[in-house]
Write a structure and sequence with these properties.
274 residues; alpha+beta; Conserved hypothetical protein from pyrococcus furiosus pfu- 392566-001, ParB domain; 2 domains; 5-stranded mixed beta sheet; 28% strand
Amino acid sequence: MAPKFRIIRTAQILPLMAFDEEKVSYLIQNIAESESISIPIPLMEVADNFYLLLQDSAILEAAARLGITALPAQVSIRKSKTAVFGEIYAEGFTNDLIVRFTSEFPRDTMVLTSRKDIRVYEEYDILAINVNGDSDSFLAFRRGREGHFSRLLLEFLDFIGKHCRYTQSIYNGTFPTANLKQPRYWSRLRLENMSIDSLISAGQQGTLFPANMLHFDSGYRIIGVDFPVAILNEKVPVKEKEKFLKDLISFRFRTCHPEFIGSGVFLLNTPLRK
């Protein structure tokens, strides 16, 4: 099925992840210099006039600071079986952080040492934790009535973010890291049994996971569109802007002008890696 390219108002977009200030600064500078949005943002339509943002919210923050109220988007259709997982790495993570946090909430958190124990705790959110390549342990958070995700789960992730440095999941157990001057230790935090439905509920409640923690199988992404910000801000019907977006994409692909080839016009495949 061909992707749908739309112009979506930022007020209609539900973010799921926070943003890094450095990325926001980069986007503001890039947009201001190029006067365009290079990559349509990935969205999933979840209700009439509402969409989940399938990446961190840096672009929304940059747009807000620049006074941009609509963005070009590549919209996918909601599918309950859409593959998604939540995983992030933390530098400087130690087991004592788990002890410090769970000691404050002994009734609503539980540490499990075996994956088979997870089945007993269906009313809990489960975070699998691997510290420096050791065996996984599982931290269980009792869900509240307010939604699919435990408030304590988000508080724990925020607690870890204040004591460690989060990084994207580019570090994998099959790729050992080395530093000649000083050893660096990376620990993985991964949510078990995530679903699109639970994330929709989280988005509607304003829940924000750490930047780059959630990963979606959004298929092929198009880049190098360079949609002019001036047109986004024009007071013309949205349908006219969307027609311009589609014509612009078609033009980028069919032209052989060197300046468009040099800007990196191609489809970027982003397969989901588990």
